[in-house]
Amino acid sequence: MKYDVIVVGSGPGGYVTAIRASQLGFKTAVVEKENLGGVCLNWGCIPTKALLKSAQVYDYLKHVDAYGLKAEAIDKDFEAVIKRSRGVAEGMSK
Fold this sequence. Notes:
This protein is mainly α.
């Protein structure tokens, strides 16, 4: 097969480049050694932001009285937090 543009890596720069090249009418291929989306989507930026959001929500809940609210038995479930983080990344890669 012949391509006009071959993009190596499907991270934030790669997939945008591939989409734009295709929109401009170039026959485009993407080469990715792992999962589409690269490190940022699958292991780096996105899962990390999901983990940070869980930590932020937990912190809000620990200081709920500062918002004029009451809550009891605030606890964390690290397994569920990791599962949510992976789910966020997986949902974005489809």
